[in-house]
Amino acid sequence: MRHTVLSRLAAVVALAAVTAGCAATGHGRTPPGDAAEPAGPAGPLDGLVVVIDPGHNGGNADAPDEIAEPVEVGNGEKPCDTTGTETDDGYAEHAFNFDVATRLSALLTESGATVILTREDDTGVGPCITERVAVANDAGADVSLSIHADGGPGTGSGFHIMEPVPIDGHNEDVVVPSHDLAVLLAEAMKATRMPPADYIGTDGINPRDDMGGLNLTTVPKVMVECGNMRNADDAALLKDAGFRQELAEALAEGVTRFLTS
């Protein structure tokens, strides 16, 4: 199936080698939006802005009071951030999220997009979910997506894509394009080795009204739960660097199809 993703992606995305070595900022909340990649060479995404939000952060566990601060998310309050989940043998979600986001950033940049990451490393604290969504809103991004992995029941398997539902006074204008984005991403992800979730959502799509990043967005946005870290089969895939590249290629295909349709 990986060859299927590669061949489909080649029509719209020029593949790039993944870059590594982000500079650490040390302890303290990561300044949102600092990790911006300049636009790549002219390509199908030339002139477009994509914001990628790698969920959580590596320093969150050392700052429980800071990440527990309540923030307003459009229909109530939630903690500023959380530590995320991990596999049974300790592979952390925050590390997975950042790895996939970095790979995806390289692919989209090579296609001409200007890519902004909401955090520049995996050692800081936060930023809060409200700060993360503000990065995309303030940039007037053409599209935004959050990268996550779920901590669902161990018997459940698969990916699901959380999309916004209307929240009065906040996201009404982008609910429909966000759904279109979710559908295209789900189609691309079905060509990977990770199936749609069998324990939540429908055919890989999961509308939510309890996610601050979706409630407050003013640009098309979804949150991608790339698999279930508490499921042994999913965890084996999520820990595999080859699959993480496969996943990034599928996400790049879905984003590119959305932005060029």
From TrEMBL:
The record's section on PROSITE patterns has: PROKAR_LIPOPROTEIN
Pfam families, alphabetized: Amidase_3
What are the protein's GO molecular function terms?
N-acetylmuramoyl-L-alanine amidase activity
Where is it found, in Gene Ontology cellular component terms? Answer: outer membrane-bounded periplasmic space
- Signal peptide residues on this chain, from the entry's feature table: 1-23
Write down the PANTHER family for this protein, in alphabetical order: N-ACETYLMURAMOYL-L-ALANINE AMIDASE, N-ACETYLMURAMOYL-L-ALANINE AMIDASE AMIC
**What's the protein here called?**
N-acetylmuramoyl-L-alanine amidase
